Amino acid sequence: MKIDNCVNLDDLRVLAKRRVPKLVYDYIEGGVDDEGGLRRNEEAFRRRSLVPRYMVDVSAPDRSVALFGRTWSSPYGIAPTGGIGYFRRGGDAMLWRAARDANIPFVMSIVATAPMEEMAREAPEHGWYQLSAAKDRSISEDMIRRAADLGIPALVVTVDAPVDSNKERNRRNGLGGRLTLATKLDALRRPLWLKDYIRHGPAMLENWRAYAPAGSNARQVDEFVAGQRPTGLTWADIERFRALWPRTLVLKGVLRPDDALRAAEVGADGLIVSNHGARQLDRAPSPLDVLPALDAAVGDRVALMMDGGVRRGADVLIALASGAKFVFVGRPTLYGAVAGGAAGAARAVDILRDEIEKVMAQIGCPSLDRLGPEFLHRDPEDAARNVRL
Ligand SMILES: Cc1cc2nc3c(=O)[nH]c(=O)nc-3n(C[C@H](O)[C@H](O)[C@H](O)COP(=O)(O)O)c2cc1C
Question: Atom 28 (ligand 1): residue with closest C-alpha?
Answer without folding.
Answer: 81
